[in-house]
Amino acid sequence: MLNSMPSYAHSITSRLPQVGTTIFSVMSALAQQHQAVNLSQGFPDFDAPAELLSLLDQHAKAGHNQYAPMTGVPALREAIAAKVNALYGAQYDVEAEVTVTAGATQALFTAVAAMVHPGDEVIVFTPVYDSYGPSIELQGGKVVYAHLTLPDYKPDWDEVARLITPRTRMIMLNTPHNPTGTVWTAEDMQRLIALVRDTDIVLVSDEVYEHMVFDQARHESVMRYPELAERSFVVSSFGKTYHITGWKVAYCLAPRELMAEFRKAHQFIVFTVHAPSQYALADFMKRPGWYEQLKALYQGKRDIFRQALSGSRFELLPCQGTYFQCVKYGAISDEGDRAFVERLTREQGVAAIPVSAFYPQGDDHGVIRFCFAKSAATLEKALERLIKL
């Protein structure tokens, strides 16, 4: 019996001693406990396109159920390369520069694992998506934090310049940005170009919300800028684009020298990705007009959400992209953001995420994040409750 066996817990030294249960799991569990409307985790509560689900069924029944190639099904890699060429004017070799991954988090982790050595420094921007820091620390790297400042959460490029040292190996960027919903501009990209020019710094560009940029703005992918593309791993997500977060299929693009290193790590981290999903996605990507429809869908939901809260005591922060809306709640409560979202869940029946969870030291600016990637009925129910505060 286990109880009779000696305990070795005293000899375990954690490599991630500060990491516990994620705030997303905590808030979703609390929402379920109190039967609250869950606007905390970033996933849609509506289904994927019926055509895509039908294609998945067709390919599974057609026998595409064994290992896919390590780099991804050729037809899907071809579709990805065609997409980024059409959207951004970027050309990637299908055989050497495009890899299908088991979700975007795996792609981000693999890029870090492939490039970061013990003692290397990696600059990330806070508030920061929670997988970046642990990915760096597990490789023995040092996380260096640059700050996106309220109310518009724009990068301070003078601060970034000060943070770059001879040990800087990588900069990780995320636009459109989770959790803040802000979008980097062409000027931001030019400042980044100037900073990394004549350095060996590698970039990891998390662009999973690339198709959710609002108000006629343009997504400034690093792929639009040859000086950035030549040193970048670019990551995007089918889960975000096609409402299929549970499929965990994404991709990474990089110049062949970088991708060769990426694939060395990829083959031992995950090796291959669910085959029927890849065939289905390759077929569905031929459908015209999807990206425009997606942008219109989420801008419509954002506008409904913001209009409903505009007369409330919540202070709306800018939302230029993604499917997240950040708000300040100082006119309602002086509680810390974690205490406020927990009470909001228990008493008002709406779950949100405290933005302090995206800061390494838990910096609390009185800001919380809602996800509006929800059905009209879900949003209506949540908004009815929120505007009463």
- Rg from Cα: 21 Å
Going across the biggest sheet, name each strand in turn: 2-9-8-7-6-3-4-5
User: SSE order, as H and E?
Assistant: HEHHEHEHEEHEHEHEHEHHHEEHEEEH
- Which consecutive residue ranges, at least 5 long each, have pLDDT under 50? none
- Counting DSSP E segments of at least 2 residues, the number of strands comes to 14
Helix fraction by DSSP (H/I, runs of at least 4): 25-40%
Write down the overall geometry.
globular
Looking at CATH, the homologous superfamily of the largest domain is Type I PLP-dependent aspartate aminotransferase-like (Major domain)
CATH architecture descriptor text of the largest domain: 3-Layer(aba) Sandwich
Judged by helices, strands and strand pairing, the structural class is: alpha/beta
Largest sheet: 8 strands, mixed
Instruction: Report the β-strand fraction as a percent range.
Output: 15-25%
Description:
The chain has helices at residues 23-33, 50-61, 74-88, 104-115, 132-138, 157-163, 186-196, 226-229, 238-241, 256-269, 275-284, 290-309, 337-348, 376-386, and strands spanning 37-38, 98-101, 121-126, 142-149, 154-155, 168-174, 202-206, 232-237, 250-253, 315-316, 324-328, 350-351, 353-354, 367-371. It has 389 residues and is an alpha/beta fold. It folds into 2 domains: 2-48 and 290-386, Aspartate Aminotransferase, domain 1, CATH 3.90.1150; 64-284, 3-Layer(aba) Sandwich (Aspartate Aminotransferase, domain 2). The protein has an 8-stranded mixed beta sheet with strand order 2-9-8-7-6-3-4-5, with helices on both faces.
